[in-house]
Design a protein that fits this description.
By secondary structure, the protein is mainly alpha-helical. The protein has a single domain, classed as Nucleotidyltransferases  domain 2 (Four Helix Bundle (Hemerythrin (Met), subunit A)). The protein is built from 6 helices and 2 strands; from the N terminus they run E-H-H-E-H-H-H-H. The protein has a two-stranded antiparallel sheet with strand order 1-2. Helix 3 packs antiparallel against helix 4. The protein is globular.
Length: about 140
């Protein structure tokens, strides 16, 4: 197994990360309502990263500090179990895959892309909240 760069956290950090995810989600929704698709997309990215951090903190007492955010997906699979995140993996993967397009490419997100990334981010947040609720 490849060594992964992580930061150890107290599991209580999960509440702070899920609050951040919710805040980013609300910002994402406002941007989408205003048809500001790049801003909505970036809010989606930050939402899923924060939600992933919440899950990793709650279940593993860690968070990824890798520059490549795809590592968080691998850590989620290892920490929660591949089966536990199977339904949510495509949502976080979709959003993370769009990060470079949103932040660094000159082209703008289309309305269709924006609506899709918002939907995936909302579904991942719902999954994260359900998983966090399962542990009280």
């Amino acid at each position: 197994m490849t060594k992964k760069r992580v930061k150890k956290l107290d599991s209580s950090a999960a509440a702070k990360y899920i609050d951040k995810a919710r805040e980013f989600t609300e910002s994402m929704r406002r941007s989408a309502a205003a048809k500001e698709w790049d801003a909505a997309g970036l809010g989606a990215v930050h939402s899923v990263i924060s939600a992933a951090d919440a899950l990793l903190a709650a279940y593993g007492g860690i968070r990824s500090i890798e520059p490549d955010h795809r590592m968080a997906i691998r850590l989620l699979e290892e920490t929660l179990g591949r089966n536990a995140i199977s339904s949510a993996r495509r949502h976080i993967s979709f959003v993370i895959a769009k990060k470079n397009v949103i932040e660094y490419e000159q082209r703008r997100m289309t309305e269709q892309e924006g609506k899709s990334i918002v939907q995936h981010a909302e579904r991942f947040l719902k999954f994260a909240e359900k998983m966090l609720g399962a542990i009280g």
